[in-house]
Structure formats: C-alpha cells, structure tokens
Amino acid sequence: MFATFMPVPEELSNSWSEASAMMEKGDHNLALDELRTSWDLCDNDSQKASTLKLAGDAGTALGVENPQMQRTHWRKALKSYRNSLKMDPKNKDTRKAMNNLSTLMDANAISRGVGFQMMDEGNPTPFGLFAIVAVIMMSLVAVKVISDMLTEEEGNPVVSMDVSYVDSETGQRTMGTIEIELYRDDAPKHVENFMLHSSQGNYDSTIFHRIIGGFMNQGGDIDGMNGVGGNAAKWFGYCNGESRSSSSACEQSQWTVPDEANNGLKHNSGMLAMAKTNDPNTGGSQFYIVPTGSSPSHLDGVHTVFGEVLSGMSHVDAINNVATGNNDDDEETSGDQPIDDVILITATVNE
Fold first, then answer.
1. Which residues are registered as beta bridge partners of 161?
2. CA 337 from centroid of its chain's CA atoms
3. Sheet-wide strand order for 206-207
4. Domain extents for the chain?
5. What CATH number belongs to 10-152?
6. Residue range 62-93, pLDDT digits in tens
C-alpha cells in the first residue's frame, strides 16, 4: 500500500504565503497575526507543525529587532519550535532553526525556562488557540479519548545538564547548559535508567573523564570517575551483561542495562548514547555525546543511541576541544582525560 499525500488547502497555503511575505518585509507582528488565522485553517498535525515553525521564525526575527523584548520573543519562538517538533519530529529545518535560536539564547545568557503561554498582548497565541480547541473537544468526546490525546501530546522528557569547563580558546572556566531530549519510545530502558540517575542526583558533580577530539565526550562514571565504574540505576534483569531471573545473586555494582541498539537511531552529531564494554548488555551509568562534525557510524547497532541535544551544542563542541593528557606532558594526566576537570555540575529532568 502507498501512503496518500494530503494536499494543503489553498486557503491555508495562501495564508502561509502572506505571512512569509510579511516577514520578508519585516512586518513580523503582522505575520504572527496572520499565522493565527493559518492555525484555524489547519487540518492535521503536519500543517500545524508548519504553522508553528513559521511562528518560531517570526518570533526569532522579532527578538533580533527588539532587544528590549528579546527574552520574551525568543522564549515564545523556542516554544513554537519545540511544539512543531512534537508534531513533526523528523523535520530537519525546524530542528536546525531551533538549534540556531538556542545558540543565540546561550550567547545572550537567556534561559529557556518559560511556561506555556496562552495569550500574547490580549490575543491568543497558536498554543492558546490549540488549547481553546482542546477545551471544545472535551465537551464532545469521551473522557478516555481525551486522556489518550493528552498523553500523546506530552512528548519526550528533557534532561538539562549544567556543565563547567576550561575553554581552550579563552583559557577561562566557563559554565553552560546542555538540554537533551530523550527518545523514550525508541529506548525505554535506557531513558528510564538515565532519568533515574539524573533525578537521584547520581550524575551531580561527576566529570567527563574521556574526551576524544572529533569523536565524542564521555562521562557518567558515578563511582571512580575514571571510566571503569557505574551501574544501572535499577534492576533491569541483567548482571554484568548476563540475563538473570533475580537480583539476589548480583551486587548492585554489577547491574547493567540490556542493549536497545537496533532502534534505528544513528550516531549523528548531537546524539546521546550509552557507553559499555565490548560485551553486549553491559551499559550502566556512563554515556557519551557526539560533537558537531562527528558521525561514528561503526557504533550504530552496537551502542544504544537514546537522546539528542536540543540546545547547548556550542558547549558540547567546546568541551570536545579542551586540552587532554594527549596534548600535554603533565605526568598527572594521560590518555584522553581532560587536564582541567570538565564537570557535570547537575543533571535535572524536565518532563
């Protein structure tokens, strides 16, 4: 069977075109007004995702034009991009636009902790319009259907990592935040394990102990912080890689996570994956992040990929460039361990 392509209604297409033309002229507020009309004309999630992407573009431009309201405009724009990706998670243009905006927000020290906004200067935002529609639907459908719908709209959890490192260009210790979306449907056990370690504070004050330039940044050793320790946050049925019916004969330090490496996710730039030994099912707490320009495809199907950086790639790349033992004659450091500690200050789960 072949998928049926659903054409965009002419009225909606014209509305998008008008909004785009307004943005080209610099009339971004007018474009947002037009996109509220576009929202009412959408028939499916794909069309809603495109409308939200345009709203994010308009909000990003408004923040550039109006520094006094920059924080407000950029937070709204980031929210638009995120909600667009929830409806169309494979849209590379939307993800690229969101990452570019996140970089701008990092550079201007603007946090991304903004709540769900229903109104903008007395008018409903696209999200507000969606909420109004949802309220109307609740009066027309059964409670169970509504519950299922709201569950589907929750999206993936996000973990925020506050990190500290010595920047190789400035020589100064730098602090930043890396936000990572966890793909719960693709690797449920790894996501649960990572969230448990984060929520229990196990990653707090640990280090990235292994940095290989152009390859990856590895951390998460919650024991010795030297790359040889770290266990699963709960019992997943595996003891040091071997399946067991009970944890009674397995010390907690030997608990491991079963592989979920054949989930289709690849080792592209910005991906989060589980570190382990050469043996299968031996992941514990250690993880690594792939920097920009790296794509170690030889690890695909071997190590489980279970998340992706949403914002803060500038910090991932800067960490990948820190000085390591390979770059210095200091006898106290060797191999791929950073000369100056790269610290994971805290990891926080944001569901």
1. 178, 347
2. 26
3. 206-207, 343-350, 158-166, 173-182, 305-311, 271-274, 287-289, 216-219, 210-212
4. 10-152, 158-350
5. 1.25.40.10
6. 989 988 888 888 888 898 988 888 888 888 88
